[in-house]
Amino acid sequence: MNRLQANLCLICVTLCWSTEVIIFACIPDSVLPFATTCICNAIAAVVLALCFFKRVKKEMKRAGKKLLLHCFLLSVLNCGYNTLYLYGLNDFDVSTGAFTFSMTVVVLPVVLITMKKSVGAKMWVSVVLVLLGIVCALGGNMEGIPVQGLLLMILGCIIRAVFIVKLNDFAREHDAVTLSVFISAFVAVISFVIWFILQPATFGAIPWSGTIIASLFIHAYFIIAFAQTLNIFAQKRATAAESTIIYTLEIVFSLIWGAILPDSLIDRVIPTPFHIIGAVLIVAGSIIEIVEFKGKRRLVDEAEKR
């Protein structure tokens, strides 16, 4: 897989992730997000482990405790930023929260520099465009943004940026499927602990139905088992900067779903001119980061060899 193919895979992954809002619309609000996360990740871990048992076993023999430690760290970071987003989004409407979520790309350069990694000029250009897109999309809502919710979202973005950088590092060290199996397993365990604390009845508190069961299995397979594993495969070749920039396209896809899908599937949100301009700027920032200019490929390859 070359870098262009990796970026195309990341776009596919982002498209899959953007459909979460459709799947979650089929799950009642009484089902806690931690319950959904626990069940879906557990299903994904079991499915992947059963399908790729020999592959997982081989990687476990090779990497052992180091693999488990890396997966546990990624799982803690994953649960950390998702929890912060969960509580931070309570203070935002859907569109404002979605664009604020994209601020990960703004803090990523700082995180990369802090972790002593290089930041190219193209990334700074992409970050500026995406930041302008976020600000434009928020439009008149900027003044009404609650400070507490914003701080939670920013902290979540910082942790997510660290997660993306570490995932990018570990994806080059370990087998993608095995990483996905153990990340899903650890996330399921951590989420269950939080779920039990908030709702001791756990599985007994879920109003089980065919729709809920189908939604959980669809989310487990397409969003976690498939998209997460494909994302890790792509991270072997794509950079953390490319990944983060491309992830912002999830907002663009979500806006499209909100505009074209019927009310029976999703709460329709008609994009405003500010949303459209913001989305265009985000797409422009993604294209700049993805496109490889003459000579850049050679320089990147030389840097990777060093």
Element order: H for helix, E for strand: HHHHHHHHHHHHHHH
N- to C-terminal distance: 20 Å
What is the number of strand segments? 0
Measured as a percent range, the helix fraction is over 70%
Report the total helices: 15
Strand content: under 5%
- Low-pLDDT runs of 5+ residues are 295-306
Structural class: mainly alpha
- Report the major sheet: none
Explain the overall architecture.
It contains 15 helices and no strands. The protein is mainly alpha-helical. α8 (121-138) runs antiparallel to α14.
Question: How do you describe this structure in short?
Answer:
The chain has 306 residues and is mostly helical. The chain has helices at 3-18, 20-24, 33-51, 53-63, 65-88, 94-101, 104-114, 121-138, 147-171, 176-198, 210-235, 240-247, 249-260, 273-290, 296-305. Mean pLDDT is 85; it is low at 295-306.
What descriptive keywords fit this protein?
306 residues, mainly alpha, 15 helices, disordered C terminus
Walk me through the topology.
Layout: H1 3-18, H2 20-24, H3 33-51, H4 53-63, H5 65-88, H6 94-101, H7 104-114, H8 121-138, H9 147-171, H10 176-198, H11 210-235, H12 240-247, H13 249-260, H14 273-290, H15 296-305
